[in-house]
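Handout, page 2. Input:
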Amino acid sequence: MYSPQVLDHFQNPRNAGEITDADASVQLENPACGDILKLTVKRSGDQITDIKFRAKGCVPAMACGSAVTELVKGKTLGEARKLSRQELVQTIGGLPEASTHASNLAMDALAAALKEIKN
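Output:
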């Protein structure tokens, strides 16, 4: 049902946790399914030096939270803003149609965190 990459991110999450002195902290919930994703971001200048996630929800939600942190950690804010949902889904080996909400939640949380840094 799930790709090996989704299962790997679920079983071995990357960047799990929370940054206490974060430059941005956002928590979003998908009202339809109840999945919750929190991202905390630390930056130095224009670079994301650290990003962590906490997720409560389905396997794909946790996998997308893990993968999105891996994809933007070490990148500039501009590079992070250019990340597409399609790139995220491709990184985790695809998602079943019923699980696309997980990638949307991860991308929405990333956008909100980057907006918070901008403000």
